[in-house]
Amino acid sequence: MAAWKRIGCAIDFSAGSRIAMKEAIDLARRSGAELDLLHAEEPPGMTDLPPPEAVVEAAHRDESAHLDGWRAEASAELGRPVGGVVFHGPAAPAIARVAAERGIDLLVTGTHGRRGLRHLVLGSVAERLAHLAPCSVLVVRT
After folding, report:
1. How far, CA to CA in Å, does 76 sit from each of 9, 64, 73, 86?
2. What is the pTM of this model?
3. Which of 60, 85, 116, 135 is least enclosed, having the fewest CB within 10 Å?
4. What domains appear along the chain, each with residue ranges and CATH number?
5. Pick from 46, 127, 66, 57: which is nearest to 93 by CA?
6. pLDDT tens-place string over residues 60-108
7. What ranges in the chain are assigned the alpha helix state H?
């Protein structure tokens, strides 16, 4: 097994993210690595008007609180503290940037296994992460 010291798990609060988190917890337990949960707040859809600052701040507070719940669950399962961070930006490049900043050795992420037109239109954060991340990426099929 690789000598991972810090594992990052990209989450979007979906059921698939929970599966990826469980895999990351298991890897952190077996390797003795620290674990960080990473959540990217993606910018709102293309509109002519940006959302009011109060709406953005409220969304950030909600997502931070949601992340705190996931961190508590992961910490209880791992038996030690789990870090976490909510940050802004398009998911794949933002996660890759934060992984570099935090010294992540391995990124764990889920994938929905989309195919065909849905994959072409929606893209794949996991696929982009594999190209952008400064470390190895483990993609957990969910």
Report:
1. 16, 18, 5, 20
2. 0.86
3. 116
4. 6-43+60-141 (3.40.50.620)
5. 127
6. 788 899 999 999 999 999 999 999 999 988 899 999 999 999 999 999 9
7. 15-31, 53-78, 91-102, 116-122, 125-132
